[in-house]
Amino acid sequence: MTGTRPEVLARWPRVRADLRTDATGTLSVNDVDHACSAASVARLRAGVLARCVAVATTVHRPVRLEITDSLGTQQLAVSPDGTVRGAHDDGTVDAVAEPPVEASPCRRCDVPQQVTTTTCASCGVLEPLRVELVPVAVLDADTLVHPDDELIERLRATLVDAAPPPVVPVTPVPAVVGSGASGPASFESLLDVGLDPEPVAPRPTRARRAAPAVRARSLHLTFSTQASVTAPDGVSLGRDPAPADGRHPVRVASPGMQVSKTHAFIDVDDHGRLFVTDCRSTNGTRVLSEPPVRLDPGSRHEIAPGTTLELGDVRCTVTLAD
């Protein structure tokens, strides 16, 4: 009887961590190093595991973690659900999981958090277990380094646009009754007998965003990472934003690369109301209200003038220009 074939980790992505006894260290994702620090070695280790969970969640599979501390070097397989198992040089993974990872204090409010938590429910901070000194981007299609063929195909599949609308067939013009003709009637014969050609159904078109009725107000945007910007009442924010539906593109400086290429839209309607839309960004958009609100991707959310938004590692305060 043949035994079950062991699970084998993909070569990419690969995470390495070097943890020192003073609770500092280096975390490397695909050979890109990030300096780390925490209040204790235990919190540092939890932060490393949380980063691995974020990477595993992005690629939808376990990732390899090579972690070195005062006890030596250990190879682990970290899954999107936070499960940790032993791994080996050949990529095989132990069938039995390690004990569950204990919750670790939030970096802002110290409320215990699981390694799978992306936003602290108590204080609202993103990545509550982050230990990198400079925020790092969760892997997306723009930051892939050595993806395998399977992952490339999956990414391509998510970028394929919807199929074009079907072509509506044209109904043949019927023969004129009593004309004796064996084929379709000519246009002239239809005129002679007082008939009109059967109308052809129009080809369906995709709905487009209606342009605002009036563009009377401008936006004043104050950023935590760059100079303020005054722009028309429809803006597209991101590292390299697209001018979607006529919106004015505003580039946002993101030291930790946590702002997506096109991260969010901000619009003003003809009544002076402000709206923000998260453009399915990698790290999300939060309205820093009481309590903070994380926007659903693609949904339009009304905000008051003076509201501060959190776009990854950048804060942006939105007001109406005089």
TrEMBL record:
Residues 235-287 form the FHA domain. PROSITE patterns: FHA_DOMAIN. The lineage of its organism: Bacteria, Bacillati, Actinomycetota, Actinomycetes, Micrococcales. Pfam families: FHA (PF00498). Coiled coil: none annotated. Gene3D superfamilies: 2.60.200.20. This is FHA domain-containing protein. The keyword Phosphoprotein applies. It comes from Cellulomonas xylanilytica. Keywords: Phosphoprotein. InterPro entries: FHA_dom (IPR000253), SMAD_FHA_dom_sf (IPR008984). The keyword Cell wall biogenesis/degradation does not apply. It comes from the Bacteria.
